Model the fold of this input.
Amino acid sequence: MVQSASTSGIITGIIIVIVGIIFISFVRKIGKTQKKIKENISGYNAVKCPNCGNLTGTLNSLCPNCGSRLRNFSEKEEKELKDEEELREEQSIKDEIKRLEEKKQLEKDKGEIE
Ligand SMILES: [Zn+2]
Done:
């Protein structure tokens, strides 16, 4: 009777140890995954926008949220950025002209119908 009780005790102990090992390896696995995710994020080198606090990757030179500059620009980049801005401005003017022309045409068409 005493023998049996101690045997079941040992078995219970072994089970607890096995479950414990499985549990620990599981927790470690999660920890490793989390560490990997953290490493990936830090490898991505997120930068915080000085203007709005938005976090973004270093690949972005401008904040995608507010358009602030996230780093110092070289002369060449400054020029490229200026050209881009000018191009965008030009495009928006063109769009506005197109919109006005379409509006005019629409009013004209309306006037012809009436
Ligand atoms: Zn921003």
The pocket of zinc ion is lined by residues 49, 51-52, 54, 63, 65-66, 68 (CB under 6 Å). Residues 36 and 78 are 36 Å apart (CA to CA). Residues 2-44 form the longest helix (43 residues).
